[in-house]
Specification:
By secondary structure, the chain is an alpha+beta fold. Among the domains are: 128 residues, PAS domain (Beta-Lactamase, 2-Layer Sandwich); 160 residues, Histidine kinase-like ATPase, C-terminal domain (Heat Shock Protein 90), CATH 3.30.565.10. It has 15 helices and 19 strands. The strands form four sheets. Strands 1, 2, 3, 4, 5 and 6 form a six-stranded antiparallel sheet that branches. Strand 11 and strand 12 form a beta hairpin. Helix 1 runs antiparallel to helix 9. The longest helix has 66 residues. The chain is elongated, with a radius of gyration of 57 Å. 26% of the residues are buried.
Amino acid sequence: MPKQRHVSIRKKLITTFLTFATISVVLLGALFFTSARKELQSVHIAQLENIADLKKDRIELYFRERQGDIVTAANAYDIKRTLPLLGRLAADPSDPVFRETYRKLDIHTKQYRDVYGYLSIILTDTRGRIVYVSPESQMKERLGKHIYPENAFAEGKKDVYFSDILRNSAAESGFEIMASAPVRDARGAFAGVIAFEMDMTPVYKLFQDTTGLGRTGEELIVRREGSAALFLSPLRYDPDAVLKKKALFDETRAFPAQMAVQGRRGAGLVYDYNGVEVLAAWRYVPSLRWGLVAKINAAEAFQSVVALRNMVIAIAAGIIVLGVLAAMLFARSFSAPIMALQKGAEMISSGNLDYRVGITSNDEIGRLAAAFDNMASSLGRTTGELRRKATALETSNMELEAFSYSVSHDLRAPLRGIDGFSLVLLEDYAEKLDNEGRDALERIRAASQRMGLLIDDLLKLSRVSRAELKRERVNLSKIAGRIAEDLRKTGPGRCVEFVIADGITHEGDERLLSVVLQNLLGNAWKFTEKHENARIEFGMADCHGAAAYFVRDDGAGFDPSYSDKLFMPFQRLHAMYEFSGTGIGLATVQRIISRHGGRVWAEGEVGKGACFYFTLDERDIDEERHS
């Protein structure tokens, strides 16, 4: 088993508290931060939606007023009466009648430009050619030309129309929008179109007012151009973006603008045209075909939550530090008596049974220390008793050894005498004995020889029980192969197939494990001697996760109902005249396997062979399985 790393209780207590405190603080902090962020996001979204709705209403109001202006102008009597005349006279601008008509009409239209700030007011004939423009300074350049953009005339013939935003040709950095409407004469016939050129500066000022949007807040307008959103207003981070900057619909950036130009209404946490995470609300203005976006950077929106999070982290860190200090003090007061108990255990394990811990506190540790001291006292008494018993056992073992030697020496001499004299009678006086006499002497000789074998096996069994184990890595396959070769030499005429698995090794006493395999393979050899073609196998199998080794044969087998007698000394399941033996071999096997911490068992059936299994070090396996 691998050596386990020692961790003190003090460290365990501190680590446990630190882990618990950290996880608790992190979970609570994350929950609080998420909740606060979600709540703050809802507040900002509601604010942005209000701002977007307000700006949308103000834009629509602004252009409804401009619509009212152009409708009023288109229905003005002077324009309805004058436009057909201008259409007829515009071919010759120097005509006095044209000049006088132009002058009178200019007095009427000038008030629109002065009061409402229109860049110019244009009248066209029924074919879209300009017949009047105010201010008069533009007349020479624009008179007789078609109105631009062309759809201002085409759509203006039908109803009030607002064009897309255009670059102002009169101002390099300015932008305008053209509003147009139909003009009908006194009889209701279409006489031409009136158009107002409107400066976008007032509209842009409306969007540059970012009240309530903080430092990074921004409002912008866009329109759809194919599969992209075209920016129509100067941007906070790109003032020259008007009519230049686009965001394709398949891009992740400028998501609010893409949604707005597609007629969507919504709000959420998205990415703006710079790829920056923002909170935004978007709206669609159908009358102008514009999308409107109000947004603020998420970093600024959640700044208060981040500050709160940092404060919570600082407080949590302080709590953890204080908690660790408290845990250290508690662990110290807790671990000191345990260390005293540890020292006591070490002293007692070293043999000092007179050592006492001496902790007198009234808590559980104090009671444990008292129990420990009582245990030390009892252990001292028990150890003394064990020493006395060990001395007595050693004396008994010495006496048993002397007795074993006496049995071996004193019994062998008379047995050799009986066998020898029986042999003399058979050899020298055989003619004086009848058949019954010779048979009796043969039986006497066989019995004395068997008695000698029994004495030898009993001494071997006794030595196996007392021999010291010398553990090393043992190659069981190699030992089995060597025993198989020896067995073949004892019966060269037999046809026996040995199947021995390669590479089977285990920790154990090589001499004793050799005895195990000698007995098991020898039994298999013996009980297959009546088979013309026998098979003996040595291998390894899995037994509930542990390695089990086996010796299997196809010999005489045994009755499984008597399997409990197999490993008992002198117990035989076959008659002497069938198979030789003393009945000690399997008892010796069981004794050796038991000393190795394993177990041995057998399976068999009469006439179908037997299989003997054994394991080694099962106690160590159980300890590893439960550790």
